Amino acid sequence: MPKRKRILAVSSGGGHWVELMRLRPAFAGHDVAFVTVNPEYRDEVAGGGHRFYTVNDATRWNKFAVLLMAFRVLLIVLRERPNVIITTGAAPGHFALRFGKWMRSRTVWLDSIANVDELSMSGMMSGRFADLWLTQWEHLAKPQAAGAKIDAGGPSFLGAVL
User: Fold this and answer.
1) Do 136 and 160 contact (CB within 8 A), yes or no?
2) Taking a C-beta distance cutoff of 8 angstroms, is the pair 128, 136 a contact?
3) H-helix segments, 61-140
4) Domains in the chain, CATH or no CATH each
């Protein structure tokens, strides 16, 4: 039986959260904490013994809100000390991956299925901090050489969540 891991599952709201919730079966048997921007999502993970955190939502046009979000995410990462951080985006996940790398957490970025024409801006910024960088669209994946390690320098395609 695999060792129980501490997982920090992070997303912003809306479709990002829906996609993260679709990944929940992969977290079974592990110690999971969820981070998002909407306190109403707490009910969706209640009863599973999971911890739940909210951070403020922010866009790149409000620098103060972005800094506040980053600080709050940092505090959560320091408190949780996760073995693995997985995110479906956007800004809270970007900061979680960046801070998680400082703590030697394994990191996974799963770009949203909504980004059909190009990778998200958050995904492009976060890919270099991800140990596993995934896209849900095959045509957006970086071609992998035969026998190459998955995610060797670009997003890989392993299927879609939705």
Assistant:
1) yes
2) no
3) 63-80, 91-102, 121-126
4) 6-157 (3.40.50.2000)
Q: Which residue has the higher pLDDT, 74 or 144?
A: 74
Structural contact between residues 93 and 126, judged by C-beta atoms closer than 8 angstroms: yes
For 105-153, the pLDDT digits (tens) are: 999 988 765 555 555 556 556 677 888 877 766 555 565 544 445 554 6
pTM assigned to the model: 0.86
Contacts 24+ apart (CB under 8 A), 129-132: 129/94, 129/97, 129/98, 129/100, 129/101, 130/97, 131/106, 131/107, 132/106, 132/107, 132/108, 132/156
Per-residue confidence (pLDDT) for residue 144, from 0 to 100: 54
